[in-house]
Structure formats: C-alpha cells, structure tokens
Design brief:
The structure is a homodimer of 194-residue chains. Chain A has one domain: 3-Layer(aba) Sandwich (Rossmann fold), CATH 3.40.50.2020. In chain A, the strands form two sheets. Chain A has an eight-stranded mixed sheet with strand order 6-7-5-4-8-9-10-11, with helices on both faces. In chain A, strands 1-2 form a two-stranded antiparallel ribbon. Chain A has five helices and eleven strands. In chain A, helix 2 packs across helix 3. In chain A, strand 8, helix 4 and strand 9 form a beta-alpha-beta unit. With 194 residues, the first copy, chain A, is of the alpha/beta class. Chains A and B meet through strand 3, helix 2, helix 3 and strand 5 of A and strand 3, helix 2, helix 3 and strand 5 of B. Strand 3 of chain A pairs antiparallel with strand 5 of chain B.
Amino acid sequence: MRELEQRIKSDGVVLSGDVLKVDQFLNHQVDPDLMFAIGQRFAHLFADNQITKILTVESSGIAPAVMTGLQLHVPVIFARKHKSLTLTDDLYTADVKSFTKQTQNKITVSKKYISADDHVLIIDDFLANGQAVFGLLEIANQADLKVEGVGIVIEKSFQPGAQKIKDQGIRLESLAKIKSLANGQVTFVTEQHD
Amino acid sequence: MRELEQRIKSDGVVLSGDVLKVDQFLNHQVDPDLMFAIGQRFAHLFADNQITKILTVESSGIAPAVMTGLQLHVPVIFARKHKSLTLTDDLYTADVKSFTKQTQNKITVSKKYISADDHVLIIDDFLANGQAVFGLLEIANQADLKVEGVGIVIEKSFQPGAQKIKDQGIRLESLAKIKSLANGQVTFVTEQHD
C-alpha cells in the first residue's frame, strides 16, 4: 500500500536493534484518515470471506481493526492484556511474550463474543515474531472458529512471524512489508499491492 | 443520543456496586457503526471549535476518539498507561487512579505530538470519578494547550466526575447520562440531545 509505505518513509524512525517507531501515525498518535484507508484495503482483500468478527489485541490494533469493521459492518473484539489473571471461567486465554519489552502477558477474550459459527479476520498493527497473532490464533482454536486470514499493517519480513503464519496454511495480508532496517534505512519488499 | 441509550438498555449489564458493563459494544467487543455515529455526534458538537488534536487514553477511548478524528480530520493521540516509569524526559506524565480496579497508573503523552498551538478535544468512553479526564487535563496543562471540551460516551451522572469538570469551567458533552443504576435498572437523565 503505497500511501502507507510513503508515510513510513517520511514519519517512521528507525532505532537500533531493528526497531521501527511509527508512533507519529499508528501507535501513539493515530492518523484516522490513514486508518480509514487501511480499513478499506483490508475490507477489500477479505470481501469474499464472509467475515463475521474481527479480532485484535489492545491497544495499537484497535484503530485499524475498527476501521476494517466499519467497512465490513461486523463487530470488532479486542483481546485484553493482563499481567496476571485469577477468574478465567468465562474467558479464553493465551500467553503472549513481548520480545521488545521482555514481558509476558496473558490475553483474554470473553467466551460470550466468539463462537464456532464465526469467520474471523485477525488484524494487528505490527508483525515481527508473531507472538500476538499466535496468541489470537490459540484463542481462535480454543473457540473452534474459522480463521479466514490475518491482516497486518506493517510486517517486518526479516523476522520469523510472517513465515510461521504462512507455514500453518493461514492467509496473511500485510499492507507494508519491510525487508530491512539496516543502517537506519527502511527498505521494503518490492512487490506492490497497488 | 437515543441510539446509544437504546443500546445501553438492550446490551448493557448492571452489576453490583454501581458498575455498568458495556463490553458487548464499547470496551471489549466494539460496534464500529455505533462508534461512527458517536464520532459524528462529537464532531458536530465541536464543529466550531477549530479542534487540532483529539486526546484520549488507551484502550477503550481509542475507538470513539478515532471515529471523531475521522470526521474532524485531525490526529488522535492516545495516552499510554504504565505501572511504573523510568525515562520521562520526552514525555508529559500524570497519575491516574482507577477506583474500580483499585490500581494507580501513570499516563504519558509524547511531547512531540502536542504543543501550545493545539486546540484539544478530550474523548473517553466512561466518566465516573473523572480520574482519566483529570489526568489528561493535567497533561494538557503541562503542555499549555487549549482544551476546547470533553466528550464522553457514557457519563454516570450520580458520581462526582461530571460536576468536577464543569466546576472548572470546562465544556462537557456526554452522549448518554445515567442518573441511576439502582435495583439493576438503568435510568437516564431525561434531557435528550436528539
């Protein structure tokens, strides 16, 4: 998605350790018009999949997920992150490790809001090692629902998450694919969606 | 806002201790079409205020805030919650106490994204004791920016937050105002916006 790649080039900041900061438009300050365009793109890509629910994780996944839900007219569920958990009877839970923050969270989704009839699209802002997506896939598996695919705003293609998702036979659509952040430069995988 | 009040009546759940659960459409599962309508309403109410930025707190404020930003075509900043903080040179910070969860958080906003030129609209999902809003107001004060008003999706009018905001001379617009949750029943303040 050219508009997104241009925005990453102009407003993303490459930090040491292969970290790309996009808090100017995606995960602290949010550009709602860009999010709307992102939602349109995901809705277009999954238009034929009879999506009934969108699943994401708080907090940075919410804006692109809600904009996608707005186009597809389906509810969005954001999994909650918890440091620890006691009551879990009415919740699906999965463990999610954050490599950048070196933390371990549990994510939860209420059993009330997903069921085996659902065709789900998983949306998240970033894909690196894939921990958040695999947490959501584990919850989808517990709920026995059909995952139609995964939509990612920014994929770091040089990290293992993308390949691991595809290895499971799951459809992955990433709107910007980063080949490298070497020498402080963003290089995209050259294939273009538009 | 009648559509919102009807949704609260049909899908909200009143728990003991004056807790209203609306995780069916607002803060766990999200109804994007309702959020869009909420964004339209806030945009209409603050159409003459030359809003340049919207400020909210993760996570439940993000959906209504981003939909409002979409209508006003301005960036949305969601303050981050932290249990503890070390590096703060480039951040505005404020303390926020949660009465329901009995926790104390720090919320932060990057100094890069707000400035004294900004006319800000604060948006949040719930107003009870007003802790989150007062945290955001403190950050607005540190950044010396102009707060044009506060937009709340659901106000619990029987708790002190709303009056405290108005006592400071700040404009408050709440789309649903709850007078009472006594006996498990939702009763609204009778004035109607539409």
